[in-house]
Design brief:
The protein is of the alpha/beta class and 562 residues long. It folds into 2 domains: 340 residues, Alkaline Phosphatase, subunit A, CATH 3.40.720.10; 177 residues, no CATH class. It has 21 helices and 23 strands. Strands 1, 2, 5, 6, 7, 8, 9, 19, 20 and 21 form a 10-stranded mixed sheet that branches. Strand 22, helix 20 and strand 23 form a beta-alpha-beta unit. Helix 1 packs across helix 2, helix 8 packs antiparallel against helix 9 and helix 8 packs parallel to helix 10. Bound molecules: zinc ion.
Length: 562
């Protein structure tokens, strides 16, 4: 069926394009200087705003909030992982963890058809929404990431080198040339994939996302940034990030050409990005500050018998999670050669003396801190109630007072309590404290040589960081022209997309229709509608197999996320 059929004028279609980790800090100057002519035209003819992401500003919660209009306390995706036993045995989040419908689920309930390409948490792909192709958090190496299944054969036949993801093994080997070439080639594949769907599928909502920029910015930032401490001078990688933006801009031009006339465009990122100068190994800091106690390394290396039965049950729990990252008790001489980003919580868990530990950081980058709470953690120490509040407040204040001894500058700019950030029935799934570091500092959960370590000592170390503010750009007949708006919230995206589709929003959504972006006369003629009865969420009983969890873990590990 052709997208250009006779219904084109009567239907309210919406085209949403995501560029993961895009920041106005880079996009605006490049749009103004002509490097990104297509984005430049949309900026002149539409409205744009900074888009405030979730905390932590990570890909799975960010995109999930954009697509549900809700905060993680309602949709239940806080991180790459879901908490288990207080976060001690993390497992990757899956669509079964979602507790809120996404816009394409809502569109399907109204009989509308969506094409959803490369969004997180879309494996297994759901053919009932229309077309769905899996994105990040799809197990590495699976074949069935396209729905309907027959579409995959068509895409494979038409697009040379058709595949799911970038090959992170080149990164592990420190081969940045191969990683860059693979990333640009995957962008070619994904552009052809989107163009095929635009031309040959029938759709009301088209939502396509590219995650590749996020990966490139993590690993290539220092090569373009003369102010980065690990900037090596001009060289072959200096324009990788700019050139990827330009490739995306050319792809966007082709996609816009393929849209039915009058289709509004929503362009966004899930969070922004910034230089990463310094790693904060928060477990080291917690230990230095007296909130966490470590056993001597020798005791851990002698084996589980030496560290007690409880540590053993913890390791068994990790093993049951099937993540393939059960602590490897490697000798210290070898460990020095391991990149610091791979020193994950699971690898230091057996060294923690829980009987003297009041707070810890259990999982992936950007995550928060947990109190070792009695009745929640397996060896909880801190009593619920007044003692919990006292420890949490002491920890919060110590973090806010923390200065980089080299510069005297604050390492941490804000520390939030869980209940100040998350609202909703699943808010308890978030950490007790959420830490916002200074712009060039990234908090990681593993143990390093010391609390603060410079970034960029090896090719596989990240030198680009996430920033909380991403981008939002709206363009179309209903949208005002050439205006910059104050900051919008990422939860505003779903209600605004629903409005443009002609559908009501949910009263339970945290976001709102961005009416200030719309032409007043058109808004007056068609005011936003609110659904008092929340849209239903189709239950998913899907569970990843242990093998699939291990494959997701490998993917995340390959990208330096654990
Ligand atoms: Zn992202």
């Amino acid at each position: 069926m052709s997208a250009g059929n006779g219904h084109a004028r009567a239907r309210r279609r919406v085209f949403v394009v995501g560029l993961d980790a895009a920041t106005w800090d880079l996009v605006l100057p490049w749009a103004e200087s002509g490097v990104l002519p297509t984005v430049g035209r949309l900026l002149r003819e539409g409205v744009h705003a900074p888009l405030r992401s979730t905390l932590p500003a990570l890909t799975p919660p960010g995109w999930t909030s954009a697509a549900t209009g809700r905060n993680p306390g309602k949709h239940n995706v806080f991180n790459f992982y879901r908490g288990r036993a207080g976060g001690l045995a993390p497992a990757p989040v899956t669509p079964a963890d979602l507790r809120s419908p996404r816009v394409w689920d809502i569109a399907a309930q109204h009989g509308l058809r969506s094409v959803v390409l490369r969004m997180p948490l879309t494996y297994p792909p759901d053919p009932s929404v229309g077309v769905m192709i899996g994105g990040i958090m799809t197990p590495k190496g699976v074949d069935d990431f396209v729905a309907p299944g027959a579409l995959k054969a068509t895409l494979e036949a038409r697009i040379p080198g058709y595949r799911m993801e970038v090959d992170a093994s080149s990164l592990k080997a420190g081969d940045l040339d191969a990683f860059r070439d693979d990333a640009f080639d995957l962008q070619r594949v994904q552009t052809e994939e989107a163009l095929h769907c635009l031309r040959h599928e029938d759709w009301d909502l088209f939502w396509v996302m590219s995650h590749t920029l996020d990966k490139l910015q993590h690993f290539f930032w220092r090569y373009m940034d003369p102010e980065h401490p690990a900037y090596p001078g001009p060289g072959p990688y200096q324009h990788v990030i700019r050139d990827f933006h330009a490739a995306f801009d050319r792809a966007l031009a082709r996609m816009l050409e393929a849209l039915p006339a009058g289709t509004p465009v929503v362009m966004l990122s899930d969070h922004g990005s910034a230089p990463l100068h310094t790693y904060l190994h928060v477990m080291n800091w917690l230990s230095d500050a007296g909130f966490l106690a470590l056993r001597r390394e020798g005791a851990a290396r002698r084996g589980l018998a030496a560290v007690g039965v409880d540590a053993k049950s913890l390791v068994c729990g990790l093993r049951r999670a099937g993540l393939g990252w059960v602590p490897k008790l490697v000798p210290r001489s070898l460990r020095r050669q391991v990149p610091q980003s791979s020193m994950s919580f699971a690898r230091v868990a057996t060294r923690i003396d829980w009987s003297r530990t009041r707070a810890y950081c259990p999982s992936a980058p950007g995550s928060g801190l947990w109190i070792n709470l009695r009745g929640r953690e397996p060896e909880g120490l801190v009593a619920p109630g007044a003692e919990f509040e006292r420890v949490r407040e002491a920890l919060r204040r110590r973090l806010l007072d923390y200065r980089d001894p080299r510069t005297g500058e604050s390492v941490v700019v804000a520390v939030h309590r869980r209940e100040d950030i998350y609202r909703g029935p699943f808010a308890e799934g978030g950490p007790d404290l959420l830490v916002e570091t200074a712009r060039t500092v990234c908090m990681v959960e593993g143990l390093g040589a010391q609390a603060l370590m410079p970034a960029g000592r090896s090719p596989e170390e990240r030198t680009g960081n996430h920033a909380r503010d991403g981008i939002l750009l709206l363009w179309g007949d209903d949208v005002r022209r050439g205006e910059r708006l104050p900051r919008a919230a990422i939860e505003d995206v779903a209600p605004t997309v629903l409005y443009l589709l002609g559908l009501a929003t949910d009263a339970d959504m945290d976001g709102r229709v961005l009416t200030e972006a719309l032409v007043p006369e058109r808004l007056a003629a068609r005011p936003p509608l609110v659904n008092e009865q929340p849209y239903a969420l189709k239950e998913s009983s899907f569970r990843y197999s242990e093998d699939d969890e291990r494959k997701i873990q490998e993917m995340l590990e390959g990208l330096g996320y654990v």
